Amino acid sequence: MSELATGKRRGPDGLRKPTITDVAREAGVSAAAVSYVLNGRLKEVSPATAERVLQKVRELGYVKNLAAASLTGQRSRMLAVIIPTLYDPRAVGAEPPINPFYGEFLIRLEHEARLRGYAVCFHTGHEEESVQFLLQRNMDAAVLAGFSEWDLPGLLKNPGIRCVLFDSHGHAPEHGHVRTNEQKGGYLAAERLIDIGRRRLLFLGAKPVATSDNVPSERYRGACKACELAGVQLQVMETAVSYDAGLYAAQHIVDMAVDGVVTTADVIAAGVLDGLARLGRSVPGDVAVMGYDNLPICQYTRPQLSSIDQGLREKIRAVMDLVEQPEPGAVRVIDPTRVLRQSA
Amino acid sequence: MSELATGKRRGPDGLRKPTITDVAREAGVSAAAVSYVLNGRLKEVSPATAERVLQKVRELGYVKNLAAASLTGQRSRMLAVIIPTLYDPRAVGAEPPINPFYGEFLIRLEHEARLRGYAVCFHTGHEEESVQFLLQRNMDAAVLAGFSEWDLPGLLKNPGIRCVLFDSHGHAPEHGHVRTNEQKGGYLAAERLIDIGRRRLLFLGAKPVATSDNVPSERYRGACKACELAGVQLQVMETAVSYDAGLYAAQHIVDMAVDGVVTTADVIAAGVLDGLARLGRSVPGDVAVMGYDNLPICQYTRPQLSSIDQGLREKIRAVMDLVEQPEPGAVRVIDPTRVLRQSA
DNA sequence: CTGAAAGCGCTTACAG
DNA sequence: CTGAAAGCGCTTACAG
């Protein structure tokens, strides 16, 4: 308490963290001069002074307090990632399964962000909570991942928040957007099944609503197009995005006498694979299955999952480009690719 | 530029984010009064004033700037997670595989932290970089995940950083520690293999150095104990923590005529499974395999992986307890449990 | 090239 | 119960 109440942060050794004032005193210059040196405004300061300051910075182990710096209107070089749909809302309370895609996404984004000098915070709360989070912490930008139309308004009409929308749908002309060509992804998945002779296809995924333009719906539309071109039948079944949902769907797949399945996530496909195995069906013999995301788990399943790779690396770079150089209304669409393994 | 230079953050609509001063003016009180209300120090302020302030807060959509608040010595309610070993250092440049365990860890930690009012940032850089990161951003605490003796010194001898060490080894008596009883984990894994009649075991994992006390070494020691008790042979092979490393190890497993494998990560085990399949060996028939971590991928492999569950949920709670109530030198050791599936 | 001053948004003793 | 003042650590015009 006392150490905090005084406003002087002290470590276990009782030492105060050195401030810009300490450095200034030690170097015999003003705090302003130190600030100039630290910010590379070398024309404001003589080389000799700069050298002396740098020397003291090293000696004292001075590190700039970015929270204070951000207060004066500088950028905080901190970035928030908001992911509202991380947990299956139906699984509240227990330990809900997590789509491993988001772990990949977060960690790879942090890597790219760090190279560009940004720190990343992430937040999985909903609407109101996220807005508070962003406003409170003075974030330079927010990466909104997997948002749909109805999640957006609160976030977007708040002043001072620069957003980049990732795999999100909704009207946000002031912000940048990065997404995969989802229609093409759905098309590639269905096309593969058709190419290997399947004629009764099933689309399996979260809310594939034909009237909306969210991610699963776009993929659905792409799959439809492939099926229409080939004169092939496409049924739909809504499921949660989880292994268990896929497991559960297997019975329906058998009942419907389907011979090819397009999923919207590798984890769903993994569940389908196991469900079908339990029911004695062979994959891809009886039913061919396409995953989506091309996660590492595609290698682990038996048979290994054919999947759609969304070009995550490229998307993440596009996100960071828009964070650094905002372009209101910019839309970067990355083309997905098909990765064939054993399941289709 | 101009908007930032003035220090007034404006949104796309040109509105300044309301500050405590704005609220004070509107409510006809001093900024101090608003601060008191906001911080629940209600005895400092009359109920009528409090009501008026709260009313204006709502009206203006005021949100406290936590960066500013943390400057005056308050807690920032922000927490850093540092994970130095996230990427395989050998795989620099390319897109290195990520152990999915860390994604789980991060996401579940954020969930628990959020419930307790903390935001979480994470950082995967090494030593110097991490120290800078923590110092610059005024973090309340750092969760150091997977550190070994040689990574620690720089972080620990810096003033003002409260740390909780997670699955880490090294001398840090001023900080709290949370870990699994790794010896028991190794013991449980080897014991299972012995129980099902295996007599030639192999330990497969990162740096299982018998002289050190890092995580893999502890597990190794546990496995040794089980083998000694049963008079069973235990060989060792060092591998990276990845699917490919496991795949690669399969040939050696066959060459060594081993009939049971203890791994230190589910991803390694997944690779072993596939490698053995390619070589025409059956699991668990010819070789039984134990994973470690009990990740969701244990369900996806064929055969499904028997594994050691490290009680992540409980560990995360312990971490947050120590973040909120530091106890220098506290060591919370969680017992792992064995989860049997098909591979052993 | 250098320093004193004012300000960022917030909090906390301290007088009234 | 309330307000004016000083301060947290930093930055930026603005005089010298």
The helix content of chain A is 40-55%
Please outline the major beta sheet of chain A.
6 strands, parallel
Q: Low-confidence parts of chain A lasting 5 or more residues at pLDDT below 50?
A: 1-14, 89-94
CATH fold type of the largest domain in chain A: Rossmann fold
Mean pLDDT of chain A: 85
Largest interface: A-B, 77 and 76 residues
Radius of gyration of chain A using CA atoms only: 26 Å
Q: Give the beta-strand count of chain A.
A: 12
- The 3D shape of chain A can be described as elongated
Strand content of chain A: 15-25%
Question: What CATH architecture label of the largest domain in chain A applies?
Answer: 3-Layer(aba) Sandwich
What would CATH call the class of the largest domain in chain A? Answer: Alpha Beta
Description:
The first copy, chain A, is of the alpha/beta class and 344 residues long. Chain A folds into 3 domains: 3-71, 434 Repressor (Amino-terminal Domain), CATH 1.10.260; 78-179 and 312-334, 3-Layer(aba) Sandwich (Rossmann fold); 182-309, Response regulator (Rossmann fold). Chain A contains 14 helices and 12 strands. In chain A, the strands form 3 sheets. Chain A has a 6-stranded parallel beta sheet with strand order 2-1-3-4-5-11, sandwiched between helices. A 4-stranded parallel beta sheet of chain A has the order 7-6-8-9, with helices on both faces. In chain A, helix 2 crosses helix 3 (31-38), helix 9 (182-195) packs parallel to helix 10 and helix 11 (243-255) packs across helix 12 (266-278). Chain A is elongated. In chain A, 49% of the residues are buried. The interface between A and B is large, with 77 and 76 residues. Strand 2 of chain A pairs antiparallel with strand 2 (119-123) of chain B, so a sheet runs across the interface. The structure holds a DNA duplex (16 and 16 nucleotides).
